[in-house]
Amino acid sequence: MLAYVNYYKTGRQVAIKEFNNIITRIDMLYGTFKAMEPHIELVREDERNVKEKFNNYFEQSSRLVALLAMGLRHSAPQLEREMNEIAGASLRSETEKRDSEFYYRTFIVPFNTFAFKYTWLLLPEAPHIRELAALTKDAKSLYEQMITDNQGLADEFHAQYIRLKPEIEKLQEYSKRLIKDFWD
Length: 184
What we know:
Mean pLDDT: 90
Low-confidence stretches: none
């Protein structure tokens, strides 16, 4: 504070008030951001766990799809072709980023639809089709919950922003002279 007040020698009382207002806003913002750190870390850890679980569902589903395709080749060739079309659609896209959203959209949802469509066929592979339906249903639910949770987090951050915006604007107002003298 002494350096600030000494720099603005004229109007010491104004400089003291200005400095105190700046520090108060900085302390409040710092405290708010610091308090958010543990929450953000928990959210990151939860998201890592959910993505790992989603990837496990995807890997299990992929293995099951390969097993099913081999079995359906003899008992229901038309279903094998349909499975190959679904699998091929997700493999053909070379430019898209291979992330959870990609696998959800190009693999999980189409195979979930496929499995539920043919769950009750009387085929030797029917138990595998039902297992694929359950796995892809779980993966789909998990992904959709992750999206809902992320939207909730985004809403929470937006609410924080709305709450902090007036304080940031006050900080900008109180520090105008300082910014003008040192950054312009």
